[in-house]
Amino acid sequence: MTLQHHHRKHFTVGTVFFKFVLYIYAVVNLYPIIWMLFYSFKDNMEIFTTNPFGPPQTLRFENYVKAWETFNLPVYFMNSVKVTAAVIVFVIAFSTMFAYATARMRFRGQTFLRVLTMIGLFLPLQCIMIPIAVLVRDLHINNTLWAVIVPYTAFNLSFSIMVLYGYMRSLPFELEESACLDGASIWTCFLRIIVPNVKSAIATVAIFVFMSVWNEYNLALILLTRDELKTLPLGLLFFQGEYTTDWGAMGATMVIASIPTVLVYTLFSAQVEKAMTVSGAVKG
Amino acid sequence: MKKYLGNKAMILALIAPTMILICVMVLYPLVILFTKSFTEWDGLNPSTFKGMDNYIRLFKDPIFYTGLQNGIIFALVQTCIQIPVATLLAFAVKDSGRFEKKFFRITYYLPAVLSITVVAQLWLSMYNAEYGLINKIFELMGLEYRQNWLGDGDSGIVAIAIVNTWQFTGYQFILLLSAANSIPEHYFEAAQIDGCSKFKAHLRITLPLMQESYKYCLIIAITGGLNAFATMNIMTGGGPGTSTYTLTYLMYRSAFKVGNYGYGCASAIMLVVQCLIVSIIINKAVARERIIY
């Protein structure tokens, strides 16, 4: 305790240096994002010559109106919402079920099956992009949003199963015993007793899946070719399109697209960081 | 009880959706990838077996070597910047006050929650030769120095790697911070009572105890660099010429632009092999023993 106290009181050269580094890096991280936010309210004149760095002189909300009305943004946004919501629901349903069977029930080969699902954690997704594209076409789900919902669900299962399995193993086995004695069916026991007990793990999984699906680019690029099916990361590709010259409106679309993840992150930063730490720790 | 937990119909119903999805969307594609890499295939019609042809062509393809080299440069830039910076930040934040801690954590991780498209386009506008933020800053400092950052092949791949590095340093920082926080405080206190300086205590105690986390960070940074795709696809599309190609981009282009699926599969197999080699080397070299405290 005294040691800590001793530390706090003295501002050595080292402490000052570290503080300096921390704030400089915060600027390096934040300023580009703030710059983007600034230019989403400016017109080209202001961005390019009169006021490239500072806050906008007038808030040109018309950039946002234009972004929303002319760039097909509502369609992309809704596609992202639909895809993300569907994947979250499917991943949670399937992985909770699978984790329950392998963590609490007894059957032959349960460890083998669980380890088999872990392959998704170690396989770089890009590697199987080609067969996935062919498969999606052969299943006739291209030209619908299912083209991405199905593979996204499959790839996100591994992580959620791992997290949920860990949680379910830590629950006491008396839960099932008393449920069984009370005459509850195994299904009731699963839904009414186990699921409520792993709520916090389910929340972590939901946030993790939200973050990864909302921003997914690689698979969407090859699977969603029709404009009306595009999700935000694809629909936003302005620099390859025709609107490159209108920086203000482009900035506005980028800000709109970023709001959901930034909001979820600032609200649930602790859970997001926890999910990321766990997923990082399994890559090794 | 045994009957209760061994209910076959229930087990089948519980595991079926997951098993079907994993088999169809992960395992089956892997098998297809492997078998089709030995064939000539346009993705539509039945393929014809060609033995090692694709691999021989790949090893003779100059773009394959460009891709490999760019992957290595990408991985080096990421690793050499992310890991030292993330380490420095993690240790500095660890000793900060509560409010500062929260502020820095959110600030540093923020770029990682943005979509890759947003980040790539934001940096395209920063790199822009005429109006970009970076050249403007040079102008502000009175320097006449201007550069078309993405216009030339050598600086191009580094410029793209910097973007990815910027986006994901916060991720490495979070991993290292949580590792540093999980080390019991008394190890550190004991060292200080023994008259050890803070720097030395970190160097000798904290860093070695965190080696397992460094292993993850290394694997993520290196394989991430070798597999690089999205950022370069948006920012340069492989150009100018083929100078910023990566292996994933070669795979993508072979299959989806040129229609040579077999060749694409062979390049994808090379990607898998490359990542396996890196993971095996790092696992052998770093943190062989699990540390428990």
- Count of beta strands of chain B: 2
CATH architecture annotation of the largest domain in chain A: Orthogonal Bundle
CATH homolog superfamily of the largest domain in chain A: MetI-like
Helical percentage of chain A: over 70%
Question: What portion of residues of chain B is helical?
Answer: over 70%
What's the structural domain tally of chain A? 2
| Element-by-element helix/strand order of chain B | HHEEHHHHHHHHHHHH
Q: Topology of this structure?
A:
The complex is a heterodimer of chains A (about 280) and B (about 290).
Chain A: H1 2-9, H2 13-39, H3 44-50, H4 62-70, H5 73-104, H6 110-117, H7 119-122, H8 129-138, H9 146-169, H10 174-181, H11 186-197, H12 199-214, H13 218-223, H14 232-235, H15 247-267, H16 269-282
Helix pairs in contact in A: 2-15, 4-15, 5-6, 5-9, 5-12, 9-12, 10-11, 12-16
Chain B: H1 2-5, H2 8-36, E1 39-40, E2 48-49, H3 53-60, H4 62-94, H5 98-113, H6 116-127, H7 133-140, H8 153-181, H9 185-193, H10 198-209, H11 211-226, H12 230-235, H13 247-257, H14 261-285
Antiparallel strand pairs in B: 1-2
